[in-house]
Amino acid sequence: MESSQRGKSLYERIGGEPAIERLLDHFYHRVTHDGEIGHYFTHVPIGKLKVMQREFFSMVTDGPVTYSGRPLAEVHHPLAISRREFQRFTEHLVATLEEAGIGEQDRSEIIAKINLYADEITNEDSFG
Questions:
Q1: Within a 13 Å sphere around the CA of 123, how many CA atoms are in the beta-carbon half?
Q2: What are the sequence ranges of the domains in the chain?
Q3: Which of 29, 32, 34 is nearest to 44 (CA)?
């Protein structure tokens, strides 16, 4: 890590609010057009989703914004999102971060933090 980045939060290292806004635009274009997971977003108000995701992403990158949405399990469990679908979602996130020039170490840190919420987001037993 270069010395100018030392001591900065992950949020600051990736470019803060402006970078997150750009990332989310590209990211949601990818996931909404994905044949495997795009159907989850068909009837979702994307504007509201981006606001919640911006808050969540800021929170997990140690930014100044607090997530104000409903608990993740409450929102996601009724959808019966599988581990594979969650993995596909994170694959799109990795690709989006890479395209934005986010370094490998920061990408890995972001994915590790997102993965902490996997159990709250996935629920393969909803229909079983």
A1: 14
A2: 12-121
A3: 32
Distance from C-alpha of 115 to C-alpha of 109, rounded to nearest angstrom? 10
Encoded amino acid at 114, one letter: I
Its pTM surpasses 0.85 = yes
Domain at 12-121, CATH from 1.10.490.10, 1.10.150.650, 2.40.30.170, 1.20.58.760: 1.10.490.10
What b/e string do you get for 39-73 counting C-beta neighbours within 10 Å, with b at 16 or more? ebeeeeeeeeebeebbbbbbbbbebeeebeeeebe
Q: How many CB atoms lie within 10 A of CB 14?
A: 23
Token pair recorded at residue 60: 């997990």
Give 47-64 pLDDT, tens digit per residue: 999 999 999 999 999 999
